Each structure stands twice: as C-alpha cells, then as structure tokens.
Amino acid sequence: MSAKPARVRVAPSPTGDPHVGTAYMALFNKALADTTGGQFILRIEDTDRTRYVADSEAQIFEALAWLALTPHEGPHKGGPCAPYRQSERLPMYKEAADTLLRHGKAYKCYCTSERLETLRKIQQAEKAKLLGYDGLCRSLSEAEIAANDAAGKPCVVRLKMPREGDIEVHDFFRGVLKFIAAEQQDAVLLKSDGFPTYHLANIVDDHAMGITHVIRAEEWIPSTPLHFELYRAFGWDAPVFAHMPLLRNKDKSKISKRKNPTSLLWYRDAGFLPEALRNFLGLMGFSLPNDQEIFTYDEFLRHFDLAKVNIGGPIFDLQKLHWLNGEYIRKLPHAELEKRLVEQAKLLMHREREFADLPEDQLPQETFLRDFETKRRQRSRVLGALAPELMTSYEVNPQLLAPIIPLIQERMHTLVEAADYLPMFFTREFAYTPEDFIQKKHTLDDAKKALAAAREMLAGSDLEHPDWLTRMDEQSRAKAEQLGMKIGPYLGPVRMAITGSRVSPPLMESIRVLGKEEALRRIDAAINALAQG
RNA sequence: GGCCCCUUCAUCUAAUGGUUAGGAUACUGCCCUUUCAAGGCAGCGAUACGGGUUCGAAUCCCGUAGGGGUCACCA
Fold first, then answer.
1. Rounded mean pLDDT of A228-249?
2. Distance from residue A312 (CA) to nucleotide B7 (C1'), in Å?
3. Which of A132, A242, A439, A477 has its CB 3.0 to 4.6 Å from that of A172, i.e. a possible disulfide?
4. Can you tell me the distance from the alpha carbon of A474 to that of A478, in angstroms, rounded to the nearest whole number?
5. pLDDT by residue (tens digit) across A443-455?
6. CB proximity list for A201: less than 8 A, separation 6 or greater
7. CA atom of A231 to C1′ atom of B37, Å
8. pLDDT attached to residue A397
C-alpha cells in the first residue's frame, strides 16, 4: 500500500467510560498503521488530575481489546517509547517548557484565575471580538519575574504566539488552513500544578514517539495553529494532521451521552458484536468498492485509503447498526453464537439494579432509542437471571442448548434479544390467562378444541422420526381444516400452551427440543387452566 | 458573536466534467409463511440556493443560506 510505515496513536484521557469516538479514531489510526506496516500506539493522556477516573484506563484498554483494536504499543504492553502514560512522563514536559522559557519562546504568567475570570467577563460584556488571555505577563521584566518567584507566586507557562501575519497549518483532507496570528492567544503549556496541558504534552510525546500521522477528531482544528507553533518553537517537524469528521447525534450535534449512547460498555452490554460495531464505525466516512457494506477488518484494510475518507460529519444511526448486528449474528456458526450468548448472560448476571426500568423523564427522547433502551433493560434482566441455567446447560448438558440456537438465530438483532425466546425452554410454568388463548375471530371453545386435537396428534407421534416435522405439518393442516380453522389460529393456542407466548420460535421445532413428555405436560396444563377458567 | 470546518434521498454513502444520479438502513406494499423473524420482489425518496467557467457541472470557481466545531491552568 502506502510507502512509509506510519506511527500513529490514539490518545484518550481516562475521565470516564470508554468512548465510541475513541474506538472510531482507533480504527482509522490502526488501519493506517496496518496498511503501511507501521505501529498503532495507545497513549493515556492523564494530565488532568481533577477529572481522573481510576477505572477508566483499564476500561479503555478492555474496550479496545473487545473490538480487536489492540495497540502495538501502550501502557499495558510497553514499547520502545515507554512510558505511555503522561503522568509518568512529567519530567519531559518540565524540561520542554524550560527549554522554551530559556529560548524566550514562552513566558511565565502569574495571573490568577480570578483575574482571568474577570477578564473574560469584561470581554463578554463588551462583546469583544477577541476573547482570551490579554498577554499581560508577556511583558514582565526579569526583575518582576524574579520578585514573583521569590514571593513564591504560583505561575503557569504560556507560549509566545506570533502577533503578526498568518499561521498556516496543513490538514491532510482540507489542505492549507489559514489563521490570523493576532487572533490566537498565548496558550498555557504548563499548569501551576506542574502538569502539562494537552497542547504541550501531545506535541512533546508525538515528537518523542516518532508519530508520523495525527489522525484525530475535527474538534481539534481550532487548536492546530497552536500545535504548529509549538513544533516551530521546538524546531521540530510537524507530523501529518488528518482531522476526521465528528460522529454526530441525530440532530447533527457532536455525539453526546444525553442524546446517544457513547459508552463502548453500553454497546457490549446491549449485545452488539464487536465485529459489527467495528464494521459500522468503518462505514462512518468510508466506503468499500461495489457497495460492500459488510466486511471484515482485513477486507477493510485491503481497501483502506486515508485519502478516500468522506469528511462530512456522519450521524451515528443506531437503527442501521441494529440491522448490521443482526446480519453478523446470522452469520455466526451455531457453536459460536451459543458461546457468545452464554458469555453475554454471564456478563449481565447479578446486575438487575443497573437494568431497572428508567423513569419516564429519563428515557431518551428519540423514539427508536427510547424503545430500544426500554426493551434492552427488560431483556438484560431476563437474560441475566437466566445466566446460571444457561451456564449449566452449556457446560453440563450441552445437547440442551445447542438445538435451540438455530431456532432463535435469525430472530435476533442483538444478543440480549435472546431473552425473548430462551426462557420458555427453561421454565415449566407460565402466567397466562384464558384470553391469551383466544385467537382472532375465534372463541375460547375453538382454543380448547385445538388443544385437545393437538394433544392427541402429538401423543400418537414419534418425535425421533426423520419425517416428524413434515408429518406434524400435514396433520396440523388436516386437523385445522376439519375444525374449520386456518392453521395459524389452530396452532395459536398450542403455541401459548407450549411457549407461554403468542410469539415464539417455530412451534414444532420447539416441541422437539422440549421432548414429548414435557410438551404433553404443558398442553395438559393449558387444558386444565382453560377448564377451570 | 469572532474564527474555522462541512453540505448528494430521513440516515450511511457511490458516482473524482458526459449515469434514467447507484447501493444500504428506515418506511410502505406484495410474495413466502405456523406466530415473530429472516428472505424475495416492488415502491417512496437527494445533488441546499444563486451566479459563473464549460459543448456539457453533483463534480471546478464565487456568493448566499443552513448545519457543526471552537473560543479553560479539560482533553
């Protein structure tokens, strides 16, 4: 493919749940590394101590591993540029800041956050065109600086941005972007707590780690002139910057928790397959030849070309992901789906509280998502509760679960949807009422007749016979006709008796899984219930 | 508001100066069908607007409109 091996990175900050945008950037970065024989690096940008969340880093790594977007280098596995956690690289930033100070490219600023706050308020009140730091400390004399330091005044280090002319930055997709130097402000590089800001740390590390391409979100464009100036101040060559489009909510705003699930953990809990989500992310801003929409990572790589990325911001359409996930589920070998279902149930076990129904006012506004989320919670509870039985069945009695898989596979779009079909195979009692047996345009009496007829038919049949399904089909039709019913209404009450629901996997196949004895018992239970009701 | 970015069906996108503007999701209808799915077929549906350039513009240029991002000692 491309010429030189690219060294790329994804640089999330551990401030909360692993974000779908991180996975999106990881995918495109990794793709560039893999198509050029380069390396994909995970760097943890933990320079904000106030927002730091302890679990977050582990979750980020776990989520990337789940998606098979594992980095070649990172805090978990080390590498030639270790450490990969910025909090462990503090001396480098300090030294870099000192260098800039020494060369007069940066200056110490003693302004308090109170002054900055009032400054901002005044600027807003005046509707000033330029908001931001006024550069007061830029002109401090050496004596003043010494006096401030002697007095132990806290300070930050700011970059001296040029005050005249244009700053030209280059973006891989957009070409040259021009910014007016005078409109840029002197950004903070080192905070008063001694930690670097993102701006400093990211440049120092990208340079130290030999990063060749910075593929990051479009929201970084406004600070790119600052980053170019930093490279210039250090005398380093800047990498290629490629600003990817932002993933969007339905209303086109930047994807956000309130309007769209953003946590990768949510997608895993909801039963999306990692390969489906990764495929879907690959569809955001990119397409394969011949309208191919379903592809493996290898196929993606075969066609990947950074230059072909579409930079219009794509809306993250959960409904399409839902469809795609169903496609992936249907493609899974039975044994694999079985394994994943058990794993999913295990994942959801003992978490009922998390999946409690959401109060009306906390439900998402958008209709598809609202409905999805409501059902997802219900199903998660059901599947989690079923976990012990599924695990036992999988490990101790595999011949029980295995035949169920083909019956439910083509009905599912997410793994948790199995909760709609699985319980009937593990429950012996159903909470139905006589009304549940009444079919459209039919009476309770019809239902009773259908149950009796079906019982007789089933009792006299041999479930082991290879033609059993065909025979049941033929006999059902004949019996239905004899009773003056269509096959649907005829089997409806039987379905309710056997599965406890009007909706179920194919009836006869389900009966075969349950076995004759259990099936007859269920029909008898229903007959009894109707007789008493 | 200043600066910057973006703009093909509702949504994801294809078409890199010549196509009846293609595919997919969603939606609708029909078929299949033992419920629900899945599947098959069909329908609906877009080049934001206005100027240029050109024999010819979704495609190149300018303007307008709309949308988005960003303006922290957060990333």
1. 98
2. 7
3. A242
4. 6
5. 999 999 999 999 9
6. A45, A47, A86, A89, A93
7. 57
8. 86
Of all residues in chain A, what percent carry a pLDDT higher than 70? 99
Q: How far is CA A525 from CA A139, A356, A425, A490, in A?
A: 90, 32, 16, 18
**At A398, is the pLDDT very low, low, confident or very high (cuts 50, 70, 90)?**
confident
DSSP, collapsed to helix, strand or coil, labels residue A517 as helix
Q: How far is the CA of A212 from the C1' of B71 (A)?
A: 28
In the residue annotation, A30 being an active-site residue is answered as no
Task: Write the Ramachandran bin of A99: left for phi over 0, alpha for psi from -120 to 50, otherwise beta.
Answer: alpha
- pLDDT band with cut points at 50, 70 and 90 for residue A420: very high
**8-state DSSP, A397:** -
Contact A200, A97 (CB under 8 A): yes
pLDDT at A128: 78
Q: What sign has the CA pseudo-torsion A431, A434, A439, A445?
A: positive
**What is the CB neighbour count within 10 angstroms for residue A178?**
9
Q: Report the alpha-carbon angle A236-A242-A244, nearest 5.
A: 145
pLDDT for A2 beyond 50: no
3-state secondary structure A255-310: CCCCCCCCEHHHHHHCCCCHHHHHHHHHHCCCCCHHHCCCCCHHHHHHHCCHHHCC
Name the band, by pLDDT with cuts 50, 70 and 90, for residue A3.
low
Token couple for A328: 């992936």
The set of strand B positions with any atom below 7 Å of a protein CB reads: 1-8, 11-14, 22-26, 34-39, 67-75
Phi, psi of A227, rounded to the nearest 5 degrees? -65, -40
CA A244 to C1' B9, in angstroms, rounded, equals: 24
Beta bridge pairs of residue A108: A157
Catalytically annotated residue among A77, A121, A257, A308:
A257
pTM, to two decimals: 0.96
The length of chain A is 533
A514-527 pLDDT per residue, tens: 999 999 999 999 99
The end-to-end CA distance of chain A, in Å, is 73
Residue nearest the C1' of B13 (CA based): A287
For the segment A42-67, what is each residue's pLDDT rounded down to a tens digit? 999 999 999 999 999 999 999 999 99
The residue whose CA lies nearest the C1' of nucleotide B34 is A488
State mean pLDDT over A92-103.
97
Joined together, the tokens standing for residue A275 give: 């390969």
What tokens does A117 get? Answer: 């706050």
